[in-house]
Amino acid sequence: xxxxxxxxxxxxxxxxxxxxxxxxxxxxxxxxxxxxxxxxxxxxxxxxxxxxxxxxxxxxxxxxxxxxxxxxxxxxxxxxxxxxxxxxxxxxxxxxxxxxxxxxxxxxxxxxxxxxxxxxxxxxxxxxxxxxxxxxxxxxxxxxxxxxxxxxxxxxxxxxxxxxxxxxxxxxxxxxxxxxxxxxxxxxxxxxxxxxxxxxxxxxxxxxxxxxxxxxxxxxxxxxxxxxxxxxxxxxxxxxxxxxxxxxxxxxxxxxxxxxxxxxxxxxxxxxxxxxxxxxxxxxxxxxxxxxxxxxxxxxxxxxxxxxxxxxxxxxxxxxxxxxxxxxxxxxxxxxxxxxxxxxxxxxxxxxxxxxxxxxxxxxxxxxxxxxxxxxxxxxxxxxxxxxxxxxxxxxxxxxxxxxxxxxxxxxxxxxxxxxxxxxxxx
Length: 427
Prior knowledge:
It contains 23 helices and 2 strands. The chain has helices at residues 2-17, 19-34, 42-49, 83-105, 112-121, 125-133, 135-148, 150-155, 165-175, 184-195, 205-208, 222-232, 237-256, 266-274, 284-293, 305-316, 325-335, 340-352, 360-373, 378-381, 386-395, 397-409, 419-425, and strands spanning 159-160, 198-199. 32% of the residues are buried.
C-alpha cells in the first residue's frame, strides 16, 4: 500500500507536472523492469543511463561480519529451499521492480510493448507466471481497454516477440470479456486488429498460434468458426472453454442486437462438435472434452431442454449417428429428467436403425439410457432381436430382473413377442 501510494504521488506530481523529469522517471522504471533479466542492480543501470557513477555500497551497509549485504533478487524454484516461505518475498520483489513501469503505461501507452519484449526474454517461468498474476497488470489492461478500446490496446503491440505469446494471449483474454466488448462494433474492431497482428518475423499470429483466435472466435463469420472448430477441439481444456464461451456469448449478443452477421447458435455448436470426424489428431477424448464443456455451469444456460431436444433430433437424423450422440443424450437426461418421454422415442428410433449393429459407444449408451429411463423403456427393449436382448440382459443384471418381472406382469399386452424372446424372458 505504501508503494502504491508513493507511485500515485510520483506520477501525479513529479511526472505529470514536471516535463523535465518525465524521461528520468521513465528511464528508472525501464531499468527496474529490465533488472528482471539479470542480476544487475537497477540503481546501477539507472545511474549509467543518466551519466552518474553506479551505486556503491556505503558505510553501514554490511552484515554483522562486515560483508556487503546481498541485493535482493527474485528466486526461481531451483533457488528456493523452502518455496512456501519464499512466495511472499518473490511476489513483493517482483512488484517492487515492475509496479512503477506498469503505472506509467497508463500515461505512456506505447511503453506496453516494452513489457512484452522483456517478458519474452525472461528465462524463469516463475517470474513470467508472477507477472501474469499481478493484480495491477490486469488493472492496467482493463484501464487501457476502457480508455482507448480493446482494438487500440492490441494495436499498441506492433510485433509479438518470440516467447511473448503467453502475455499477449493473457492481454487478449482480458480484453475479450463482455465488459470490454460492450458493442458488436467494438468486438469486430478487436477481431480486425487480431487478424493483422504479427510476430517479429511478420508471421500472422492467428496462423502461428490458434490460441490467439479462441477469445474472439465467436465474432468471426459462421464459416470461419466451423472451420476452426476441428482444430479448437485439439487444444487444452482451458482454451476449448474460452472458445466455447466466445461462440455462445457472441451468438447471444448478435441475436439480441438483430445483427445481420450469421452466427453459430448453441444447438449448431454442439451438433458441429459431435459431427467432427475422428482423425489422427482428433480423438474421442477431444470430442468428449469439447461437448462436455457445453454442459459446464458457465455454459449450461444456453442449453435449455428445447435446445437439447433439437440437438438430439438432428443427430438421430444422420445416416451414420455420431458416437457422441448417446453421451449428449445422457448428459441431457441427467440435466432435464423430464426428457424421459423424448428418450423413449429416441430408443425406438435407434431400434429401427439397428442399434445393436452400431459402434460400441452407441450400443452401450442405448443400454444405459434404457436402464436410466427404466419402466417406460421396457416396451422398447422387447422389440430387440433375441441375441441383442440377451446381450442387454447379460450386461445389466438389475435391468434383466426388472424387465423379466415387467414382462411376466404384462405378458397379455405383448402377444406378438417372438417365441425365442418369450422363452428368454420366462426363464
